[in-house]
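REQUEST FORM: STRUCTURE PREDICTION
Request ID: SP-0412
Submitted by: Lab K.M.
Chain count: 1
Length (residues): 499
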Amino acid sequence: MKKVTLKKLSVENYKKFEAKEFDFAGRTEVSGRNRQGKTSLMDAYFDVLTGKLADGTLPNNIRRKVNGEEVDDPVVRELVIDVDGTKYVVQKKTKKGKSSNTVEYYVNGIKRNKTEYMEILKRIADPDTIAMCSNARVFLNEIQKATAKARETLGGIAGFSESQFRAEYPEYEWIKNEGVEGDSIEEILKARRRDLRKAKSDVDDIAKQIRKEQGRQVECDETLPAQRDDLLDLLKENEKQEEVLCNASREYDRISIELAGLKRSRDALVEKAGKTAREKHDRITSLLYTLKSDKKNAENKLRLAEMDLEHANKGIERHKAALAQAKKKYTEALNKDATKTLSDIDKGLDIDIELDKDKEKDNNLIVSKDTIRQTDVRRVIEEWNKLQNVGIAPIRDIKPASKRCQLLKGRIREYGMDDLLKAMGNIRHSDFLRGENKNGWMITFDWFVKPNNFLKVLEGNYNGDRKHGSGAKTQRKVEPLIPFGTLSDDGDSDTLPFM
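STATUS: Completed
RESULT:
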């Protein structure tokens, strides 16, 4: 049996490869992600040695494509193989013609025609044997043929030689010579069994005739002993042939049993390999799904944390600015006349005093005479307009005497600025309020400042799933911002003593 070892595989413009060489030594494992060219390498190997791809199909559509168009350069696949210590360089080159492709064949740099090329390959290693040893489907199709053909195929793969067997066991030579050229061993053995049965029947008939003649005590003539001796010799020869035939039959049965064992071993190996591959695929698929899910959850948490941090930083900056401004005003107020009234101090702090004399119609809330700073109103406008980056319509202004202003001040007096900002933060995290609902409805400022609506948004009733009312409600906990009057520059408590 010859030993064929692959040393190098080179391809040019073959499938996805522009130009690539691969070295092989001993047992070489080829691995990689999907669609990286593993099957292409195997196809190139079988294309050179058998004229077909790894799956047994003809090598069509092997030319490399660029932007969906096939390149015009030749497609080259070359193998460097070692056959029992002899190096062979085998190459196929496909050139693109106007109407069809042409294939050139080279062995050790010498150009050959297709017939010469295939004859050289058969001397190296039979292409059909290579295909069967490397592709289970081709192997199964071959051994499912007639018994004689399957025996011949498996004998070739196992290195069995009929001529060598006949030389080692000359006593079986007569079996092959008995048949007509082209007859199988099975047909010859079957014919010999028929002849043996007929000979035994003839011998039995003659023996009966002899006994009958002996019973009649017929006088023996000179020819009877000779005939009897001839018949006895024929009987002995038939017995010898019967013994040889029985031995051949037992040998045939033994080989058939070994063949059946090989088939069972092959089926077990194929089943085990398939099961292992399926289990490995299932594990990898499950792991990829888990990793993707964890990655998505982590990205969502990171995005929410970044938004919280951004809001908190902005709130701290605003509170620091307000604290500095309040300290400055407070210092100025201390330097003024002690008799100055509280209304003068409020004016120095730029506080917009406005009395809401009317009751709000939607919730009958009586607006008290508490003061609302104009800076709070401007801050609400700024924070609301920042929601424009998530699709919420901005507002231009809030007129002091408008119903919008009255509702806004009512919410500030009832809940405070921190809860107002927190409610606007909930809008950012609500798919429903941002228009992702079956009607495409989106929150407006006037809807937001109404008492019943504001409370629902503040409590996070619209947070979570895109479809309002389905699934568990999700409400992120946001730490309330520290009012500006409770922090000093160094972070210690600093209460402003308003008179």
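NOTES: Confidence is low (pLDDT under 50) at residues 344-370, 466-499.
Reviewed by: T.R.
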